[in-house]
């Protein structure tokens, strides 16, 4: 997939109206990457495929789940900022690292979406008062660890959307030893070998 094809796919998933804000954010990420290591530098040349489309592909999976979208370990803003820029829904971005949280806050302010998008400089385990309709993360922790760390802001109605790469099916099998629920692995549009874990009605086994 070329970068032009990836950009076109993002526009098809989101809308032409959303593209100027997304393009501005992408340019900001590239520029800021000179100051801090927001994303792996080798991926900057394929940022639309590796990061933007990889984020936008989550949107159709959450089409029937309105409400607060919580993205934790947001880092450079993927997928959280793409979700925030492509929709008008409330979004919470949780990022423990000070410089990255400051970058995210500046991006939110620049986009003029601070009335519905909040940045929390914190670990997700320490965030209180959120009721997530959707939970997402491109985190390296295991699926079971991600479910455990977000249980306090999730309910039986919460939809988890967790890109897990080639380990998706294995991680689901391991997580089901500790958690029950409806688990499904969606194929990633950016990498046929990679999977996105979709889960709902999740609760810890007793």
Automatic annotation (TrEMBL):
Pfam families in UniProt: GidB
Keywords, sorted A to Z: Cytoplasm, Methyltransferase, rRNA processing, S-adenosyl-L-methionine, Transferase
EC numbers, comma separated: 2.1.1.170
Annotated localization: Cytoplasm
Gene3D superfamilies: Vaccinia Virus protein VP39 (3.40.50.150)
Positions with a binding annotation for S-adenosyl-L-methionine: 73, 78, 124-125, 138
Highest taxon of the lineage: Bacteria
Signal sequence annotation: none
A cellular component term, taken from the record's GO annotations: cytosol
InterPro entries: rRNA_ssu_MeTfrase_G, SAM-dependent_MTases_sf
Catalytic activity, as annotated: guanosine(527) in 16S rRNA + S-adenosyl-L-methionine = N(7)-methylguanosine(527) in 16S rRNA + S-adenosyl-L-homocysteine
Entry keyword annotation includes Signal: no
Molecular function (Gene Ontology), one example: rRNA (guanine-N7-)-methyltransferase activity
Uppermost EC category: transferase
Similarity section: Belongs to the methyltransferase superfamily. RNA methyltransferase RsmG family.
Function: Specifically methylates the N7 position of guanine in position 527 of 16S rRNA.
Protein name listed in UniProt: Ribosomal RNA small subunit methyltransferase G
Species of provenance: Sphingomonas dokdonensis
Species classification: Bacteria, Pseudomonadati, Pseudomonadota, Alphaproteobacteria, Sphingomonadales
GN (gene name): rsmG
């Amino acid at each position: 997939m070329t970068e032009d094809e990836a950009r076109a796919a993002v526009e098809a998933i989101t809308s032409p109206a959303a593209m100027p804000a997304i393009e501005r954010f992408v340019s900001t990420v590239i520029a800021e990457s000179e100051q801090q290591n927001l994303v792996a530098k080798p991926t900057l040349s394929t940022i639309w495929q590796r990061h933007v489309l990889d984020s936008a592909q989550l949107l159709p999976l959450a089409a029937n789940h309105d409400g607060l979208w919580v993205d934790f370990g947001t880092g450079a803003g993927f997928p959280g900022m793409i979700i925030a820029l492509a929709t008008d829904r409330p979004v919470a971005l949780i990022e423990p690292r000070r410089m990255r949280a400051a970058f995210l806050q500046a991006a939110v302010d620049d986009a003029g979406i601070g009335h519905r998008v909040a940045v929390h400089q914190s670990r997700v385990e320490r965030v209180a008062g959120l009721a997530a309709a959707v939970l997402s993360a491109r985190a390296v922790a295991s699926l079971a660890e991600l479910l455990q760390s977000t249980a306090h802001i999730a309910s039986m109605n919460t939809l988890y959307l967790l890109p897990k790469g080639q380990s998706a099916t294995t991680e689901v099998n391991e997580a089901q030893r500790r958690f029950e629920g409806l688990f499904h692995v969606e194929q990633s549009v950016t990498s046929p070998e990679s999977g996105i874990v979709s889960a709902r009605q999740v609760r810890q086994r007793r």
